[in-house]
């Protein structure tokens, strides 16, 4: 009689190898170069793909079990939020402007990251790195879906949530994250992992999913907190994977070091320009604030970044160009962006309002070196002018956009906060404008790539001229309902009426 011998239990490393790299094979009728044509065109040299290991040893079976449990808990909370009119638990409907900007800027970016990682998974020759990229692609589309599902409940009751997919491509501020991801997705697989694994995951999501989600909790938004914390466990893994990929490239060949350094310089600056939108959400759009953008940058940007680059110094990597400029700009950027958005509020898909005296006192406390000196006088002038004239303070001129990051050129010179940045260069017979020295440097390195960038203001001038209502229809905006001042808006009136009903019935 045959005896059954229990199968030897595999260790975590053995199981990981069996279910990832051992699934690969050596091609017989095509070369590796033919199968992976983008593996070396960026100049990155990889001598031994087996040297890269997923630090989490994540396999497909464990991944699905882990994510399925998170999905089950997430949708249970979302259902409870919807059934119990959770939208009335927020502080007030001003808070929704932050969610609208999040939905227009961040959720489409998550989907773009999904597409980029799906492509990168096909282009990496190393199976371990390809499997990790494939699972991150699934993570990213899940994040886009959970964010859209979490915010869809607000779309039932409030304006401005309906057209985010159109506005990603056509709204002047929506093209800022779009251009970031178009840039990353049109790069090679190794630059892409720097762009997303470092700039988007390490720099951006730390500042978005920790302090901003804490702000959501403080303002009573259970739906946003739930998808934020559900995503954050993935983001921690993504950051680690991105940094491991960077170290892997640096360890493979010394010739990779200057290439990686140039990418770190580029994508740090691109990430910083995108992050200004998050700072505006935190400082101006949360009725109850947890921390200022400057405080968040010091904790999650400077301190984390200093630790990262101390670690990478042993490879010959320095802090990115513009590091000190970014720290200085954190004192100014949220105020500059909000002042611009307030004056162009007829062309946004969310409501804005001038900061109250209490708000300005808070901003003064958090920005002691800059707010009272440079920004309080502007807000006071705007409020006084509107009170005297009875008319909204609007800037009907078209903003000049940066050719690289596509933000309006509202930034000021480093160390000279009363002087707007003016950068321009000639290329192929055309003049191109930039919001910063960092954006100009990026353009000059790859001018052909950025010279052909889609600029929404150019489309407005070409296709609509002075037909502002026609442009608003094109971007899926309902004038006065989706934008302009919060005070007197349908969102404000409806929230107050519904909130009063719940108070009266309790």
Topology of this structure?
Blueprint: H1 12-18, H2 32-35, H3 60-83, H4 96-105, H5 107-123, H6 127-155, H7 164-170, H8 175-185, H9 189-218, H10 222-252, H11 256-284, H12 293-312, H13 323-329, H14 333-343, H15 357-366, H16 371-389, E1 412-413, E2 416-420, E3 423-427, E4 430-434, H17 437-445, H18 447-451, H19 456-464, H20 468-474, H21 490-505
Antiparallel strand pairs: 1-2, 3-4
Helix pairs in contact: 3-6, 3-10, 4-7, 4-11, 5-6, 5-8, 5-9, 6-10, 9-10, 9-11, 9-12, 11-14
Task: Tell me what you see in this structure.
The protein has 506 residues and is mainly alpha-helical. The chain has a single domain, classed as Ribonucleotide Reductase, subunit A (Orthogonal Bundle), CATH 1.10.620.20. Helices cover 62% and strands 3% of the residues. The chain has a two-stranded antiparallel sheet with strand order 1-2. The chain has a two-stranded antiparallel sheet with strand order 3-4. The longest helix has 31 residues. It is globular, with a radius of gyration of 24 Å. The chain starts with 11 loop residues before the first helix and ends with a helix. The model has no long low-confidence stretch (mean pLDDT 89).
């Amino acid at each position: 009689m045959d005896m059954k011998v229990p199968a030897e239990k595999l260790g975590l490393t053995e199981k990981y190898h069996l279910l990832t790299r051992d699934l690969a094979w050596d091609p017989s009728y095509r070369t590796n170069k033919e199968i992976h044509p983008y593996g070396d065109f960026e100049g990155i040299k990889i001598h031994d793909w087996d040297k890269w290991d997923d630090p989490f040893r994540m396999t497909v079976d464990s991944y699905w079990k882990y994510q399925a449990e998170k999905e089950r808990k997430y949708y249970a909370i979302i259902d409870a939020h919807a059934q119990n009119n959770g939208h009335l638990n927020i502080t007030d409907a001003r808070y929704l402007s932050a969610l609208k900007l999040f939905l227009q800027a961040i959720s489409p970016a998550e989907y773009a990251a999904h597409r980029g990682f799906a492509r990168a998974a096909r282009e990496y020759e190393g199976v371990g790195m390809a499997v990790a990229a494939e699972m991150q692609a699934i993570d990213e589309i899940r994040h886009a879906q959970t964010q859209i599902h979490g915010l869809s409940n607000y779309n039932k009751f409030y304006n401005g949530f309906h057209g985010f997919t159109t506005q990603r491509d056509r709204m002047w501020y929506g093209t800022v994250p779009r251009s970031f991801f178009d840039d990353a997705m049109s790069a090679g697989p190794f630059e892409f992992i720097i762009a997303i694994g470092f700039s988007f995951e390490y720099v951006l999501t730390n500042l978005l999913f920790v302090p901003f989600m804490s702000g959501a909790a403080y303002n009573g938004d259970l739906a946003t907190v739930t998808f934020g914390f559900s995503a954050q466990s993935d983001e921690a893994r993504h950051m680690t994977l991105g940094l491991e990929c960077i170290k892997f490239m640096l360890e493979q060949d010394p010739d990779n070091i200057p290439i990686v350094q140039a990418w770190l310089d580029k994508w740090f600056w691109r990430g910083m320009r995108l992050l200004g939108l998050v700072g505006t959400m935190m400082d101006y759009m949360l009725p109850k604030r947890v921390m200022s953008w400057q405080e968040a940058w010091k904790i999650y940007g400077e301190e984390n970044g200093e630790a990262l680059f101390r670690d990478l110094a042993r490879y010959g990597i320095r802090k990115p160009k513009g590091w000190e400029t970014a720290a200085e700009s954190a004192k100014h950027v949220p105020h500059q962006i909000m002042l611009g958005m307030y004056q162009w509020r007829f062309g946004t898909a969310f409501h804005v309002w001038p900061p109250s005296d209490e708000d300005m006192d808070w901003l003064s406390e958090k920005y002691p070196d800059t707010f009272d000196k440079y920004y309080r006088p502007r807000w006071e002038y705007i409020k006084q002018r509107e009170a005297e004239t009875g008319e909204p303070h609007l800037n009907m001129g078209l903003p000049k956009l940066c050719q690289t990051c596509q933000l309006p050129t509202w930034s000021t010179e480093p160390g000279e906060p009363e002087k707007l940045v003016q950068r321009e260069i000639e290329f192929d017979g055309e003049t191109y404008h930039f919001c910063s020295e960092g954006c100009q440097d990026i353009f000059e390195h790859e001018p052909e790539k950025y010279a052909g960038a889609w600029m929404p203001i150019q489309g407005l001038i070409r296709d609509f001229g002075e037909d502002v209502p026609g442009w608003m229809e094109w971007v899926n905006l309902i004038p006065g309902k989706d934008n302009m001042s919060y005070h007197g808006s349908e969102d404000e009136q409806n929230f107050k009426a519904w909130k009063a009903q719940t108070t009266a019935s309790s």
